[in-house]
Amino acid sequence: LQFLYFIGAKRRGEPHFSNKMAVKKTKSEGDNHSSLSETSPLSPMSPTIRKAAPDGVVQIGEHSFHWKTVVGSALVFIIVFAFGLGIPLNYNDGFWACVSGVCGWISTAAWGISFYPQVYLNWVRKSVVGMSFDFQYLNLIGFACYSIMNVCYYFVDPIKDDYKQMHDNSTSAVESNDVAFAVHAEILTAITFVQIFFYERGSQTFNKLAIGSSIVAGVFYLLWFLDLVIKGGRYGDRNRPFIWLDFLSGLAYFKLAISIVKYMPQVYLNYSRKRTTGWNIWNVLLDFTGGSLSIVQMVMDCATKND
Questions:
Q1: Which helix (H) or strand (E) holds 26?
Q2: Pairing of strands 57-60, 22-27
Q3: CB 132 within 8 A of CB 266
Q4: Are the C-beta atoms of 5 and 273 separated by less than 8 Å?
Q5: In contact, 270 and 12? CB cutoff 8 Å
Q6: What is the DSSP string of 175-197?
Q7: Residue 207 and residue 34: Cα distance in Å, rounded?
């Protein structure tokens, strides 16, 4: 849906795919600031920046790079990064483990890089208008849950033993790249979230429904958690009054619920504004790439580990 909005913006003549810029001193679309015709997928400017970069050029401080150079460098980094880690870390586990590792690290790199264009876009424009605050808020909570879950599944031996016991001696499908991505995503999401409070945001605010629903969901999760403690876990083991695996399963469901709804605020914002200015297309494309390869890796891991 996000990608279709970008395509629609291009057909309507909104300059998202080139790097020319025109600043129009008009009040429009309820943004309460000068409307902009930003054109680069990476560097739309704010009213405080008067000088436009040449066509097809990404400006980083005093240095200028052609957008093809930036994209090409990112692709080379992703490939070298994935093969450099995916094969050595899984070499002793066989061919399919190496393939899975490469897919996993490509998805990790694509997902990881996907956060930077939006951070850079906000920094260049000195504005967060067009970026959904609710999306970032939900993302921050979701990746916190995801980070805790992955770190525990990968590093905590008692939890790993519990998993084997509950799943016929099968090991968890969480890999090192999952841990790396989760922690990195939480850090970058936190940076993007903090930008909301320092940069221009026009008339945009947080939606009370998004905040309220997340609080209600958190309360229900705590009640479920207390119920587990009282009953001795899902399996009613009174000798083990609390099973950490149950706690992590709850976080997984919480993250799943957030992942289902978190994109809706951004889709609605784009629809209501009838434009995608302020929301970076590379975020969408890289997120889609990372998600697709992550599914491929998960299917391969479950097949090879009989999980």
A1: strand 22-27
A2: unpaired
A3: yes
A4: no
A5: no
A6: -HHHHHHHHHHHHHHHHHHHHTT
A7: 24
The answer to whether the Cα torsion of 3, 6, 8, 10 is positive or negative is negative
In order of 165, 192, 213, 264, 279, the CA distances from 133 in angstroms are 41, 10, 15, 12, 11
Q: How far is CA 107 from CA 61, 113, 152, in A?
A: 29, 10, 21
* Whole-prediction pTM: 0.69
User: For residue 138, which amino acid is it?
Assistant: L
Residue carrying the six token digits 């000088």: 51
Note the pLDDT tens digit of each residue in 26-43: 344 444 443 343 444 444
Q: 128-178: per-residue pLDDT in tens? A: 999 999 999 999 999 999 999 999 999 988 888 878 877 778 788 788 878
Crossing angle of the two packed helices 133-155 and 264-273, in degrees rounded to 10: 160
Task: Give the integer Cα–Cα distance in Å for 66 and 55.
Answer: 9
3-class SS of residue 205: coil
